[in-house]
Amino acid sequence: MFKYKKLYKKKKTKKSYKLQKIEYDEMEFCSTIEVIIKLFKFFVLIFILFIIIKKKHKKIEEKHQIIQPRKNATKVALCSRVKKENRYVKYFIQHYKNLGYNHLFFGDNNELNDESLLDIKEIQEGIKEGFITVVNRRGIKRQDLGWNYICYENHSLEYDWFSFFDLDEYLILEQNNTLIQDFLDHPRYNKCEQVKINWRIFTDNDQLDFEDKNPIERFPIESNFKKENRHIKSTIRGGLNYKELIRNYNLHSLYDNLKACSSSGKEVEGKLYYNNPPEMENAVINHYVTKSIREFAVKKCRTLGNVETLSNGTKGYIFYYFFLINKKSQEKVDIFNKIFHTDYK
Predict the structure, then answer these.
(1) Over the stretch 87-138, which tens digit does the pLDDT of each residue have?
(2) Spatial CB neighbours of 123, under 8 Å, sequence gap ≥ 6
(3) What is the greatest pairwise CA distance in the chain?
(4) Does residue 107 contact residue 80 with C-beta atoms inside 8 Å?
(5) pLDDT tens digits for range 241-283
(6) pTM greater than 0.85 (yes/no)
(7) Annotation: CATH topology of 76-287
(8) Which pLDDT tens digit goes with each residue over 27-53?
(9) Rounded distance, CA 295 to CA 289, Å?
(10) What are the phi and psi torsion angles at 303 (to 5°)?
């Protein structure tokens, strides 16, 4: 040990310092290389994570793509009444936001003891954004038939066009990602004051109860019941005389004294929806008219009254109508009989 130390001391010359410096430089170089390799691995990992997140985000965007309306574009509003349909509101809002509507006006037609539209998260967010207005129409029995006209009267000068759709009606434009402004700004509608759009009816897809999903995803199968497609819903220009409109409470008919066009831009002469053959060109309304059997029961009681007050004839018509659109099964019949206190086969 003593000799080693002595030798070590003897070797501590100018040359040994140079050797130590070279060794130190080599160690430092190796250490730098290790750091670079570690950093390289780290950045590769970050890059891979970035690609994965980007792909996932792209899929979400494609599924829920929101197209921002053009600046200074045609302004389009939508009026809709809501009665015992709160659980569908969020999907309705998202759909029409994606189409580029500038504003949604909701008439809260729920019963006084029902949940208010103002309690719904998506409604609250829409109000903050200035995209949604909710008007209290609560407590009005059955459906509030006057709401659409009140909506139009109060705001007709603020928007170029107004659509009047219910919560089970989803406007589908011919090309995916087309804005409502692009649709209505087309020259074919230049001389039109009202554009009629036909229904396309969809089945219950053999579902029996509510499921918290977008109706477009839940009910992809179109019904064979073609006659129903003669029904229409309308989009009309703003700034018209609302007194001429208020006389017509049937939104499935064309308004008097308005120049009406079909979705193809052809002028329509017959005022009643069943006088004109259906057209599916350029636009159509997907109508999820029944949804599941239990949801349909809620809907009919909403529009016609409580189960206890319905006549046997009305119950028979409800039964007939549901199975006119949907496939009949014993399970659905049993559910219907239990809800409506009937004994249909």
Answers:
(1) 999 999 999 999 999 999 999 998 888 899 999 999 999 999 999 999 999 9
(2) 89, 93, 106, 117, 132, 134
(3) 119
(4) yes
(5) 766 565 554 566 666 677 888 898 988 875 655 567 788 889 9
(6) no
(7) Spore Coat Polysaccharide Biosynthesis Protein SpsA; Chain A (3.90.550)
(8) 565 667 777 777 777 777 888 877 877
(9) 10
(10) -90, -30
Residue found by looking up tokens 């539209």 in the block: 117
Structure tokens at 323: 């199975």
